[in-house]
Design brief:
The chain is an all-alpha fold and about 45 residues long. It is about 85% helix and about 0% strand.
């Protein structure tokens, strides 16, 4: 995956600071949003 490399770079850059914590929260929020969109789309396809 492309993202794992990006994650390692960002993680390395932000390891010393609080930013890493906020980055992880933002990433989690993005993942949740993607999952919600996917669920909504699959529900519409069933109808």
């Amino acid at each position: 995956m492309i993202f794992s490399e990006f994650d390692m770079v960002v993680g390395g850059l932000t390891k010393q600071s609080q930013t890493n914590h906020y980055y992880l929260i933002a990433k989690m929020a993005m993942d949740i949003q993607k999952t919600m969109i996917r669920l909504k789309q699959s529900r519409e396809n069933v109808r």
